[in-house]
Write a structure and sequence with these properties.
Chain B: Belongs to the ubiquitin-activating E1 family. ULA1 subfamily. Chain B: Regulatory subunit of the dimeric UBA3-ULA1 E1 enzyme. Chain B: It comes from Aspergillus campestris (strain IBT 28561). The structure holds two protein chains of two kinds. Chain A is α/β, with parallel strands linked by helices. Chain A contains 15 helices and 13 strands. Chain A folds into three domains: about 5-170 and about 275-305, Rossmann fold (3-Layer(aba) Sandwich), CATH 3.40.50; about 205-270, Ubiquitin activating enzymes (Uba3). Chain: B, domain 2 (Arc Repressor Mutant, subunit A), CATH 1.10.10; about 335-420, Ubiquitin-like 2 activating enzyme e1b. Chain:  B, domain 3 (Structural Genomics Hypothetical 15.5 Kd Protein In mrcA-pckA Intergenic Region, Chain A), CATH 3.10.290. Helix content of chain A is about 35%, strand content about 15%. In chain A, strands 3-2-1-4-5-6-7-8 form an eight-stranded mixed β-sheet, with helices on both faces. In chain A, strands 9-13-12-10-11 form a five-stranded mixed β-sheet. By secondary structure, chain B is α/β, with parallel strands linked by helices. Chain B folds into five domains: about 1-25, no CATH class; about 25-185 and about 515-555, 3-Layer(aba) Sandwich (Rossmann fold); about 205-295, no CATH class; about 305-410, no CATH class; about 420-505, no CATH class. Helix content of chain B is about 50%, strand content about 10%. In chain B, the strands form two sheets. In chain B, strands 3-2-1-4-5-6-9-10 form an eight-stranded mixed β-sheet, with helices on both faces. In chain B, strands 7-8 form a two-stranded antiparallel sheet. The longest helix of chain B has about 35 residues, at about 355-385. The two termini of chain B are about 45 Å apart. At the A-B interface, α1, α2, α4, α10 and α11 of A face α1, α2, α3, α4 and α5 of B.
Chain lengths: ~425, ~550
């Protein structure tokens, strides 16, 4: 490590790592050992977008030397108001590559390895090489995937198999940072109901009784497109497609005397756009990387385990310990209780799983210990189990019975105990 | 409204596309205010003695990054330092070939790369010199950012000049894992668009409907005769009005006013729902039942607005009063008439047939429009009385009316200091006795600033920064200031918390860590944006961030 040159350059960081503080652990050994541990830690950053750009910068300036970054997206003009590693001329290029090259060039001595693709492309061997993982994602699904993957990798005979997951997320002026020690502390899945999706507008409202501009936009997007342009796959990044939805929604709105549709709104509804600004990303990204530095060096205690931030009214943060749930379908050993109406058909039950805050599963298949209730793949099995869809739950399972639910988006099964209401 | 059609075919402009994600938060009006603002960053004030080149100023540059990206009009960096090796290990907006050059110039150049729409300039001289040569320098900015510590005399000069010109100041300190910043606003800082939670602004007037709404409710007469479809689609607002009418008939014209009566009323509504439907109930009745407790409350003026009405600025208008006060006074007159504010006019979505909902929505919109017109009338007569040369725009009256219930005025306070006014000292003392509070960090920063000022002014040797005796003397002095009336107020545990806070700062000998400065730069930029756009509610007035325990706390110091 530390040449005389780097000791000058990293003066303040090295000082923090070479002197115990009032809150650092009594057993902590400050100095060169800690500095080498930091500089040899290989870390993975998932996402090179709003949070990812800041995370890469912060890690590089926190002394990490070997950073990998995964992102499947390319740069869009709407990224430029906050994703500061990208310029107008980079539009259309892969985020991971441009971000990695920029930070590598700016900060001497750091190596950043980009991967343009999906996190699901990689296997356990890949994830096993990292000391810790920092996530800056906008998708709950990707978070759940990496969470369950890291949890399934834990081998209690091998402490190295436990990869701390540090996750950040933002929306407008709000955000949160959390630290997850797979199997040891509350995980993404334990906290799933804290991040419930917005309830969807019922299809009948969209189809027959629109009242809001959003209802007209949904109609144009979900129904009119299917009727009039079904041969073209809808692309929310294609301005002509958005323009068509906007115009079609306007006509429908006029018919029902609904006012207030704008192009911006149409785009927001269709793409499910979440407002995002540089400053909130800066706060949350640095909150995650500060924890990464503390975990990699033990120079101070790390966050246990959740910090939320809200900036609309002053500066408000709330730091607390989210609970690890014994009935967490991913890290717990008990099935999660789910109250259901026994007279509901299996088909309706499956639909509700998409929206229930504690499940949020879009394409579930399910079975009890004895029999398969519904299986989407392969087609023969789907055909065999399809008749169950019209049957009521009480005909298929008993009150208090456990079911295992799988979903193509996740590597593991979710266990639920169905309680009849 | 000119925006809908002509633009429709072309789609949004490239600027709208670039700023799309933020326009959804502060709209075109907020963006315009941002683009019309120029921010001054005083990023250091010369070296701390011979050993340290002084403040590394990362927190200032990180703050600017978050203002340049969303498109602030321009920025000016004042920083007499030259770029050294330790800057490169901390500051992302410096690179190898910057070594030995002006830090102001180099950070300015690399920040400008972030957004070609933003203008930037730099000055490699101490702020005091610049102002001496150009007394109007500060007043050409709309916001002043300072990364401290800077010399006491420079800080005083900046804060005073800013106050005289009505310019807000954000003073930031970032050391090791901790930081603090304070916002100095003008004495009176009004905000119209505070963006409260939409739930809290709902004003449905069910207990005191105006004539048109009352009539709409009265048209719901024979619910029993409706077929299931119609019955399940009566908007819940009309259901509540209908049942309120029934309730009044059996309660001498009184509305349900306490918890018990509301519970009874809720049962009355619930019993009206048909249960022999395929779903086993009716959504519109569910909505009505759910709304009883929160929507059937008599209107009461929020204390913050009552305070505004009572302020001297509102009661004694002058010809040159700010437009805010002209509208506020007009709304006060409107309020005095029958103890109501102008109707905001928004209606939540609810189960209903399209036409019925739109008809109901129009009743709310029409009333809101009528109230706005009335307020405009009041504004015009005030203007005539004061012989004001320029009229307040109707658009501004409309925005005020829509936001009236949550309008806010912040009474700006000075950048706090330990030996400032008695009130500040008292609040510090009170919080020090609370073992959960992180106020001790504020004291630690004040002590560090004192030691640095002593070094900068040649009153203490460079080594003081790492001298236990010096720190202990300063800690004792600080405690002395807080407890001048009663030393027993600060016990051993409180003293220990101050000592620990100073130890954490001393770990990096007053130097920054990038993460803490990046995080703090985000928080400070957020406050800057709120101040510049005059939207949302800024900090009043001090925030402390503790990166050791990953938490923050706000204080009104």
């Amino acid at each position: 490590m530390a040449s005389a040159d780097s000791a000058t350059r990293w003066k303040y960081l090295y000082k923090a790592l070479s002197k115990p503080g009032p809150f650092s652990d009594e057993d902590w050994v400050p100095g060169s050992e800690t500095i080498s541990a930091l500089e040899s830690s290989k870390v993975l950053v998932i996402g090179a977008g709003g949070l990812g750009c800041d995370i890469l910068k912060n890690l590089a300036l926190s002394g990490f030397k070997d950073i990998h970054v995964i992102d499947m997206d390319t740069i869009d003009i709407s990224n430029l108001n906050r994703q500061f590693l990208f310029r107008q001329a980079d539009i259309g290029k892969p985020k991971a590559e441009v971000a990695a090259a920029f930070v590598e060039k700016r900060v001497k001595g750091v190596k950043i390895t980009p991967y343009v693709g999906k996190i699901q492309d990689k296997d356990e061997d890949y994830y096993m090489q990292f000391k810790l993982v920092v996530c800056g994602l906008d998708s709950i699904e990707a978070r759940r995937w990496i969470n369950s993957t890291l949890i399934s990798m834990v081998d209690f005979d091998n402490p190295e198999s436990l990869k701390p997951l540090i996750d950040g997320g933002t929306e407008g002026f709000k955000g949160q940072a959390r630290v997850i020690l797979p199997t040891l502390s509350s995980c993404i899945e334990c906290q799933l109901d804290m991040h419930a999706p917005r309830p969807a507008v019922p299809l009948c409202t969209i189809a027959t009784i629109p009242r809001q501009p959003q209802h007209c936009i949904e109609w144009a997007h979900q129904i009119a497109w299917q009727e009039q342009r079904k041969d073209e796959p809808f692309d929310s990044d294609d301005m002509e497609h958005i323009g068509w939805v906007y115009q079609t929604a306007l006509e429908r709105a006029k018919q029902f005397n609904i006012s207030g549709i704008t192009f911006q709104m149409a785009q927001g509804v269709v793409k499910n756009i979440i407002p995002a600004i540089a400053s909130t990303n800066a706060v949350i990204a640095a909150a995650t990387t500060s924890e990464a530095l503390k975990i990699a060096t033990s120079c101070n205690p790390y966050l246990e385990n959740y910090m939320m931030y809200a900036g609309e009214d002053g500066v408000y943060t709330y730091t607390f310990e989210a609970e690890k749930k014994a009935d967490c379908p991913v890290c717990g050993n008990l099935a999660r209780k789910m109250t259901v109406d026994p007279d509901m058909t299996l088909e309706v039950f499956i639909e509700t799983l998409g929206e229930r805050p504690e499940a949020q599963l879009k394409k579930p298949s399910m079975r009890t210990e004895e029999k398969t209730l519904y299986q989407r793949f392969p087609p023969q099995l789907e055909e065999q189990t399809r008749s169950n869809l019209k049957r009521k739950l009480r005909e298929l399972v008993q009150d208090g019975q456990e079911i295992a639910v799988s979903d193509p988006a996740y590597v593991i099964d979710f266990r639920y105990r169905l309680i009849f209401s | 409204m000119a925006d809908a059609f002509p633009q429709a075919l072309a789609g949004p402009s490239s600027k709208e596309r670039k700023y799309d994600r933020q326009l959804r938060l502060w709209a075109a009006s907020g963006q315009q205010s941002l683009e019309e603002s120029r921010v001054l960053l005083v990023n250091s004030d010369g070296p701390w003695g011979n050993q340290s080149s002084g403040v590394t100023g990362v927190v200032g540059v990180e703050t600017l990054k978050n203002l340049v990206l969303p498109g602030v009009g321009g920025f000016t960096i004042v920083d007499p330092a030259v770029v050294t090796e330790p800057d490169l290990g901390l500051n992302f907006f410096l690179e190898e070939n910057c070594l030995g050059k002006s830090r102001a110039g180099e950070t300015c150049r690399l920040l400008r790369e972030l957004n070609p729409d933003v203008e930037g300039s730099s000055h490699a001289k101490p702020i005091a010199e610049i102002v001496k040569e150009d007394p109007d320098f500060i007043s050409r900015h709309q916001l002043v950012l300072i990364s401290g510590p800077i010399q006491r005399s420079s800080l005083d000069m900046l804060c005073t000049a800013a106050k005289d010109n009505g310019i807000p100041v954000l003073y930031t300190r970032s050391v090791g894992f901790t930081s603090t910043f304070s916002l100095q606003l003008p004495d009176v800082f009004p905000i119209v668009e505070t963006h409260p939670d939409p739930e809290t602004t709902q004003d449905l007037r069910l207990l005191n409907p105006w004539m048109e709404l009352d009539m709409a409710g009265a048209r719901v007469t024979n619910l029993e005769s409706l077929d299931d479809h119609e019955h399940g689609h009566v908007p819940y607002i009309l259901l509540l009005l209908h049942y309120l009418h029934k309730w009044k008939q059996s309660h001498n014209g009184a509305v349900p006013s306490n918890y018990k009566e509301k519970t009874e009323f809720r049962e009355m509504v619930r019993s009206g729902a048909r249960t022999n439907t395929p779903e086993g109930g009716e959504e519109n009745f569910d909505e009505a039942v759910a709304a009883v407790m929160k929507s059937l409350n008599p209107f009461s003026l929020r204390s913050s607005l009552r305070e505004i009405f009572e302020m001297d600025e509102c009661k004694n208008l002058r010809q040159d009063s700010a437009e805010f006060w002209i509208i506020a006074a007009a709304i006060h007159e409107f309020y005095k008439k029958d103890n109501l504010l102008p109707l905001p006019g928004s209606l939540p979505d609810m189960k209903a047939q399209s036409a019925d909902y739109i008809a109901l929505q129009n009743i709310y919109k029409a009333k809101a429009r009528k109230d706005i017109e009335e307020v405009v009338g009041l504004v015009r007569s005030i203007e005539a009385r004061l012989a004001r040369p320029v009229k307040v725009s109707e658009k501004d009256v409309e925005i005020f009316c829509k936001n009236a219930s949550h309008v806010k005025v912040i009474h700006g306070r000075n950048i706090p200091r330990l030996d400032g006014d008695a009130r500040t000292t008292k609040i510090i003392k009170n919080n020090l006795t609370n073992s959960d509070s992180i106020i001790s960090l504020f004291l630690a920063f004040q002590i560090l600033d004192d030691i640095v000022t002593d070094i900068q002014q040649g009153n203490a040797p460079d080594e003081s920064l790492d001298n236990d005796a010096v720190w202990n003397t300063h800690i004792d002095r600080a405690i002395g200031v807080i407890t001048s009336d009663n030393p027993a107020d600060i016990d051993e545990e409180a003293r220990e918390r101050i000592v620990q806070a100073t130890q954490e700062l001393r770990r990096t000998e007053g130097g920054e860590l990038h993460n803490t400065s990046a995080l703090t730069g985000g928080l400070v930029a957020q406050e800057a944006l709120k101040v510049i756009t005059r939207q949302y509610v800024p900090l009043d007035n001090t925030c402390i961030f503790d990166g050791v325990r990953s938490r923050s706390e706000m204080f009104k110091l």
